[in-house]
Amino acid sequence: MTGGGLAIIASVLGILVFLLSEAAPLLRSAKVSPAARLDAPSAEPLAVLCDEARTHTALLGADGVLRIVRDRDGAVVVERPLLRDRPATVTQGGPLFGAPGFSLASVDGRALHVAIGFDVDWAGGEPVVTPRVEDPVEVSIDATGGPLTACAASARGFSSAIVAACADGRVVLVESVVEANLFTGERTMQARRRELRAPAPVARLVLDARRENVYGATRDGRLLWWRLREAEATEPSVVVAGSPVTALAVLIGDQSLVVGQQDGSLSTWFPTAPVGAPPTLERVRDFPAHRGAVVHVAPSWRDRTFLAQDSGGGLGLYYSTSSRVLWTGPSPLPHATAAALAPKMDGALLAAPGSIAALDVESPHPEAGLRAFFGRIRYEGYERPEHVWQSSSGSDEAEPKLGLVPLLFGTLKATLFSLLVAVPLALLAAMYTAQFMHWSLRRFVKPAVEIMASLPSVVLGFLAGLWLAPRMAQFFLGVPLFLLLLLPAILLAGSLGERLPRSWRMRVPEGFAAVAFIGVLAAAIAAASALCRPLEAALFGGDFLAWLRRSLGVQYDPKNCVVLGLAMGIAVIPILFAVAEEAFSNVPRSLVSGALALGADRWYTVTRVVIPTASPGLFSAVMIGFGRAVGETMIVVMASGNTPVLDWSIFNGLRSLAANIATEIPEAPHGGTLYRTLFLAALLLFAVTFAVNTAAEVVRQHLREKYARL
Fold first, then answer.
1. pLDDT of 531 strictly over 90
2. Burial class of 468 by CB neighbour count within 10 A (0 to 12, 13 to 18, 19+)
3. Angle at 362 between CA 56 and CA 249, to 5 degrees
4. 708/702 Cα distance (integer angstroms)
5. Of 655, 63, 612, 35, whose CA–CA distance to 349 is shortest?
6. What is the pLDDT of residues 91-143, one digit of tens each?
7. Do residues 154 and 167 both lie within one domain?
8. CA distance 176 to 182
9. CA 332, 217, 190: angle at the middle one, nearest 5?
10. Has residue 546 been placed in a domain?
11. Are 462 and 638 in contact (CB under 8 A)?
12. Which residues are CB-neighbours of 670 under 8 A, at least 6 positions away?
């Protein structure tokens, strides 16, 4: 016995250690360390990027020349001037959104963008990366040849767009589509020009990858937003950011705008559309301020991570959704003029005249964190902070939402509704079976109820989801009607039974009265079914569920808490009944006989003597039922609708921790954030059941000591 007990304790501790080991990496901070230092061309880099394998680094110089450096030996393998015909001074350069590449603006009114590719050849067993530079797309922005103060470009497939700001305050957008002749291979470009208005000269511009929004910043600290979906909209939405904006970038998904300012402020903004007001930009999150002006913001290509550097050499890695500071530290190039994150988020690049610094970045779970799991978060497109679980969507650019609060709420809600059904029925049935039922009936009833525990939960879930749910939707009003009719029917049947002649009543052995109430129960069900439709027609216009939606605004989900509570209650009743019946049966017969001998009737004896004495066992039964309900999986999956919502309504569904694990673990990539988050959910489930069982054991021991003197 001792060995078995120790083995159980060791098994439980082993499970706990395993869950902790799988979930612990979620809360680790990112690691950023220097990787390599390369010599670079002396021209000032305006933008930098690298390939996925981090074998080549591409630089856009202030002289308008694109250079690609091989990281292995620092050799320049590509050197190509981008401004054709007549070279000119570059006023601003930056990344090309939507594809690897650069955009630049010149002092003579020209703007262009160029896409860069990296071909990988695996023929020799080792990957050989070959850079490929596409033909630049150049457009004339200012016909007078005036200087451009800002530019941004986006390209996808054969279409692209470039937006640039002129020194006189005009903002020009040129959208291009390249068409190729299938027979001759000749390519022609069709361009559409559009002029946008600005309230002041624009210092910075950003164009999102979908080419639906243009964001700008003026030198006096105002943010501008042009909505390109509206063909006639040329006036921007204007908000005051405060200190002058020194860095601007759009995160993946094209909804979050990262703003760095001269006073060191770092924040993210969302486009919002308040009810009854025009759309505008709203400041949603603030990060710890830098000591100097934020000069670079480099967004990730994979998630909502971004790198920020200030003028004092401070470097930080951040995650937008949860406002998480992943890492901060000194920059290896304090006066870097360009920065970028690697495509696979495994590194970063900083570039300055004559030098390139590569960093190794280890941040496998940036979207995790205590705030992400348990805090209210203002997600993109949401009007207010909310608890949300949405681990996947139709796009890789979607923002992962890993809030565990809706799952924990759903677990407790499912448990509560199932126990509301199971506890009264199981305890009262156990009390009647042990204390009132005739022994000849008890020997059949008790095994029959206990055999119900062997019924697979998947069968109950199948019946609840495919048979009970549609019938509940059809006759929902019959459920409360049945409960209203049941008690009067029982009282009426009992009253009629008492009025029968004594000779008739004596023929029924004591403890057989319950058999007669089977007919009463059937009659109540039949009456509720018969009255359901006429009552709906008289009071609710013929459809109770439509009346709920129309009058109260309550949406009825066919797979809701009522269906789930009934199905889970049936699953919990057998084990609750078995333990409670044993507790009632183990009350010493001497106590019962003594109470009856002193003149107490049967009911008084049961309520004042038997129940207090059996209370430790009854409490244990309820806690065992609680554990059974908390861990239930298949019934919740099949009968709850599997919707992770925070709502106490009995007409809505839910999603529990156990059901979520069963649903999502087959599709979770091994070692990924979702995979480890599911283990964290399992750890949370373990902690809840352990805490409840521990508290239950303390209460049970207290009750046992209290009534041990009886």
1. no
2. buried
3. 70
4. 10
5. 35
6. 788 888 888 999 998 888 888 889 999 988 877 677 788 899 988 888 888 87
7. yes
8. 19
9. 100
10. no
11. yes
12. none
Same structural domain for residues 182 and 60?
A: yes
Give the count of alpha carbons within 13 A of 314, CB side only.
Answer: 15
Retrieve residue 181's tokens. Answer: 């002749």
Q: How confident is the model at residue 5 (pLDDT cuts 50, 70, 90)?
A: confident
Q: Which of 340-344, 512-516, 643-647 has the lowest mean pLDDT?
A: 512-516
Q: Which long-range contacts (CB under 8 A, 24 or more apart) does 663-666 make?
A: 663/637, 664/391
Helix (H) and strand (E) counts in the chain: 17, 31
Q: Are residues 451 and 572 in the same domain?
A: yes
On whether both 423 and 567 belong to a single domain, the answer is yes
Q: Looking at residue 451, which CATH number applies to its domain?
A: 1.10.3720.10
Give residues with Cβ within 8 angstroms of 127, minimum separation 6.
Answer: 53, 55, 120, 121
What is the rounded distance in angstroms from the CA atom of residue 286 to the CA atom of residue 266? Answer: 6
- Tell which residue, 391, 394, 386, has the closest CA to residue 402: 391
Instruction: Give backbone dihedrals phi and psi of 378, rounded to 5 degrees, phi first.
Output: -85, 100
Measured at the CA of 577, the angle between CA 525 and CA 446, to 5 degrees, comes to 85
Q: Evaluate whether residue 196 is within a structural domain.
A: yes
Identify the H or E element spanning 697: helix 673-706
The identity of residue 539, as a single letter, is L
Helix (H) or strand (E) holding 532: helix 513-539
Q: How many domains does the chain have?
A: 4
Whether residue 159 sits in one domain with residue 117:
yes
Q: How far apart are CA 137 and CA 160, in angstroms?
A: 9
Q: What is the pLDDT of residue 261?
A: 94
The reply to whether 349 falls in a domain is yes
- Alpha-carbon span 222 to 219, nearest angstrom: 7
Instruction: Give residue 343's domain range.
Output: 246-370
Q: What angle do CA 297, 160, 114 make, to 5 degrees?
A: 65
pLDDT of residue 297: 95
Spacing of C-alpha 646 from chain mean position = 13
| CA 14 and chain centroid, separation | 29
Whole-angstrom Cα distance, residue 316 to residue 295? Answer: 12
Contact 228, 257 (CB under 8 A): no
d(CA 670, CA 660): 16
Last residue of some domain: 310, 344, 370? 370
